[in-house]
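Chain A, query sequence.
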Amino acid sequence: MPNSLAAAVPLPLTGHEAGGKDSPASGKSSLISGKPGGAIVRRSVLPGGVRVLTESMPDQRSATIGFWIGVGSRDESGGQHGSTHFLEHLLFKGTRRRTALDIASAFDEVGGESNAATAKESTCYYARVLDEALPMAIDVIADMVTGAVLDPRELEQERSVILEEIAMDNDDPAEVAHEKFVESVLAGHALARPIGGTPEAIRSVTRESVQDHYARHYRPAELVVTAAGGLDHDVVCQLVFEAISAAGWPLHPDAEPVHRRSAASVDIGATGGVHVHYRAVEQANIVMGCPSITASDDRRYVMSVMNAIFGGGMSSRLFQEIREKRGLAYATYSFSAAYADAGYFGMYAGCSPTRTREVIDLMGEELEKLAAEGITDAELAKAVGQLSGGIVLALEDTGSRMSRLGRAELVTGEFVDVDTALQRIRQVTVAQVQELAAELAGSPRTITVVGPFTSPAELGFPL
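Chain A, predicted structure.
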């Protein structure tokens, strides 16, 4: 093994990188990053096209394992909307080998925790356990992913549970504001659909549709397994291979993983506008923004810096101007989200309904000021420090490292280690931040307001 390996590493789907070795269970294996005595990142492509990425952390007594399917709510066809989220629930409800209680008990008995997350472009089933319980965790989650029975009675029960989950979100006006903003700013794109589905979609989706979605996407070539903590890469590969083989999934030696999503940016064609959603609440919830960069855009580090300065903390421009100087809101911040071919940037504030238009105008003025005047060297230095600390602290958790591997494999196709990520943050310039801010400020602006209003005219906007 070399003393160290540079760690902005492309991840070809075949896995034939330098430093690799092949074995029947480990498949096409390669060293991605690391040095002796420290964390080691390795990647293998197993028979069937299953990808396994691990980060071995010698001092850890725990490990987090995640089974990823690169399919999310954007991938649902007509009649299947909500199926991805439905499957997230149903996979915990029993397999051919285990009941729902067996699955829950397996983790409770070792003091572990398991869960799942559905996103717009992926679904992940994960668990954090003691290192000695990792074989159990792999076996149970592999069984869930490969052998779910999708029992009709359980499906109807979970239909009610998911409807309650949606109702809970709809009772939160801030959550509604964010969801409605995404629907408007990405209108016409599959990413605009809510991850959990709508009540109408959940009520109407059939077991056959959910079963078809499962059979179509839950297969070896779509599967990515990532793990971080106290583990051995070859052992993880062996356990994954055995568990999937036992389930009867076809593991052809020459099979390749599916291609990653196209990273070509699409034109959302956003026209902006003001969208008001009535709620009889005491506070107006405002989200304003525009389409933005994709997940693999080279400017994603510039976006991180800009967002930190503009609305990423208590010393940010939005917080200082809207809350500290004027006392107009308790919570205000900016945010961004990026996907394979689209993304968006936004600002949020919750305020008294009587101050809604004032806050909207201030948010827009602050963005325009950033675009026109740029940032100072002191602001840049502070943002770099803020982001650097956040990156390092987040990666002290095995779950964060497991998720980082999943995103690298499924989204960017590149693994970036901590030192390289910090270097890229430090390379961001004042000019780059202003250029990106100008692009955002010049884009059509979507404004979403959830509060005691029935039309934009009540806020002084034309109908």
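The CA atoms of residues 277 and 450 lie 5 Å apart. The longest helix spans residues 152-170.
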